[in-house]
Structure formats: structure tokens, C-alpha cells
Amino acid sequence: MVFSCEALKKKITKELNASHVEVYDDSDGCGQKFRVVVVSPLFEGKPMLQCHKLVNAALKDELQQIHAFSQKTFSPSQWEKAQGVGAQSAMCSAPGKVILFGEHSVVYKKTAVAACVSKRTKVCLTTGKGNTILMDMPGVGLSQFEVELPADEGQVKGSGKLANSLLASLLEDPGVQNYGTVDKSDETLMQRLDWWAGIVENNNKIKFSEQALSVLGYLHSFLTPRGKFCRGLDVRVTSDIRPGAGMGSSAAYAVALAGAFGKFHTANLDNAKIKELAWQAERLVHGKPSGLDTTVVCDGEIVRFPIVENVSVPRPAWPLRILLVDSGVARNTKRMVEIAAEKLKEIGTDILEEMDQIAVEAIQALTLSQDEGYKIIEDLVEKNHKCLVQLGVSHPALDQICSTAARLGLKAKITGAGGGGNAFVLLPPNMTAEKVQELQTAYQADNYQSFEVTLFGPGISFD
Length: 463
What we know:
alpha+beta, 4-stranded antiparallel sheet, about 20% strand
């Protein structure tokens, strides 16, 4: 049985009269590995072991099926002390996304349609101790990393590493310069970025940390007011969006981090500014992102991109259901964009027009009745996938996922850059839970994780 964070949170709150509960799914959506933070008056004066036993008793039935479970428990007074009396904090979260139509063609200003999903990334910023930045960011590949800032900003000196760093790409990027955001004559900003470039280069953590640290460094440098750069800061990032799966994990991180910094410093950033800053930060991860990911995770619901003024994409009156299937193969968006560009030189650009037309027809189909609209969407899913295969961005694992769906009379396609990551299977509106489970069992037999996601939920949220 698959458990949701929300269901576990609700039960813990009820059973333990909890005043604060955090539940994190660390199992990439299979619902079998969780960690929780619980604050309850029932824990007052009790040793930790006894508090843990109370949580275990509250989740007795669930823990018989959950494979891994960890917990932290606090009484209200302990929680207040842990947060720090008078500590400033800010929380912001953003959803993942799926591209329904228009992968790669959107890079060439063609139409794409994307929707946010129920999985989210959450960023919490809290006043830290002294001048220490403490990072606990397992959601983006970096756990328990700590750096010391100088005593005051006058001592923030460049490391000399900026010129050859990821951060340097923003200084020369015309797309960013056109916004007038990165002012190379701003000595304070340049020193901040140079300091962060040295931190990034000296970090030898795992794969995603260089990009995650660069995004943090850019937003911390740009959004921290003068005189506050060297203040202690605790940065915690949790996520149930797997990096490298084509679900917009980096965009969700950038949007949530920009929003959290804005709230933390009471800058009152509007969505337009958050999207702009997050899109700039995304360039540190993907090179030249279209802006689709940051737009949909910030705005939520369903988005047509590029944005057409006064033209919105309707949420269908009938359920548009998809099963996400994870190939288990990490992909590199930047590399996939390069492969597609090379293929276009070989086969010509007519395929871009074809994919644009597919996306436009999909938008129109969403306004139709369920029977008529679903049939058109089903046909367009198949056509769009064939286009992506022609662009050379498929993968044997993705081919197998789509073949399994076809064998069962269903349509599937790559979602995201390809070369790995996810594919989605279009589920008939009236498909029963039993039939969905049969489909998931078929993928499980091939060692692929799959999960149905809820589409069209809220975008950025300040929790």
C-alpha cells in the first residue's frame, strides 16, 4: 500500500494532538520511506524513547508496511528553543511539473503545454548562529554542509574563482543582461559572487551540489540587503521531486528559494520578479532554459508557453489523468537540447512546426467534451512522442516504457528533455484503481517505479 505525506500528517496530528507536524517522503513516490518531525504537548517531560514509542503507536498499522521510518520529536517548549527565540524565518514551496506537449520545440519559441503536479520542494530559511551558513539540502543533493562567512561584509573578498565558475556564465549571458539584473559595475555584488564561486569550487559533494550551491550563491548574493550578507543563515531544502527526472526539480528549487529569500528579507517580491530571478538561476543548471519550468511551478495550474497575452489555457472539465513512470536513468537537459539541435540540422525544422501544431490542438481539445477531447489528446500524445524519437532524445528505457503502455492499449510519451527521466502514460478518465494497479504492476516487473500524480494544483506557496 502507498501512503501519502498528507495522510500520515493528518493521522499523527489527530492521534497525538500535535501542534506541528512535518512529513517527508524520501522514497521517490513509492510511499515506503518516510521521516517525520512531530511537536506535541504529550511529549512534555518525557524521554525521547518514550516520545518515539507514542509516534510508533499512533502509526502502528502504517509502520507494518513502511520499510524505513525516522522521526524527531519535540515538546512545544523544546521546539521553541530549537527554533531560536526571536529567530527570523521564512518558508516557501513550489511544485514539480510535467510537460504534456512541446518538449524541445519550446526552446525554439514554439508552443508547449505544461501542468504542475502534486509533488513539491520546500525551502525554509532561518536566522542562524553567528556568521555561519548551515545547509541541510538533501532534496537537491547536499546534506549538512557548513561554511563560515567573514565577520562583516567589508571583509568579503573575492576568491579569484569567479571567472571560471558557473556563476560567471550569468555575467556574460545576454538573456540576463537584458533584464539589467547583473550589474558588473556593482563591486559589492561581484565580491559576493566571487566569494561564493570559491565555496562552490572547494565543495566536493555529490553530483547535483555544484549547481545547487551556485543557485543558492546567486540568490543569496542578489537578494540579501546591504549589511546583512554575513549574518548566520540556516537553509533547509526538502523535496519529493527526484532530480534528473524531468519534473522541474531545479525550477521548483529556484522558485522556492527566491520566494523564501524575498519573504525572509521582507522584499515582497511579486510572482513576476520571482520567476525572473528563478529563471536566471535556472541558467546555472540548464544553460539556456526556455522559462517554461519556472513559469508553471510559480503560477501553478496549467500553462501555455510562451505566454500569449490575455489567452489562458482552460483546465478541462473532465479528469486528465497520467501515470508517471520513472526510467531510473538520470538525464542531462543541456546535453539533450544539444542533441536535438544537431538532429534538427540533419532532418530540418519542419518537425518544430509539427510539434507546435500538436500543442495548439491539445489546448483546443481541453475545451471539448470528455469523449471527444480525450480521444484527440490520446492521438496527440502518440504523435508528439514520435516527434521526440525523431529528435534523438529517447532512450531504451523510455522506449520500453512506451511499448508496455502500447501493449496494454494505452498511449505514452517522453516528458521533459528525454535521454532518461520520466515518461507518462495517458490514463482513460474512467480507468479504475484496479486497472491502474495492474499497469503499475507491469512496470514494477520491469523494475520501473510509477505513480499517478494530481495535476493542476497550486503554484508557489508561502507556508
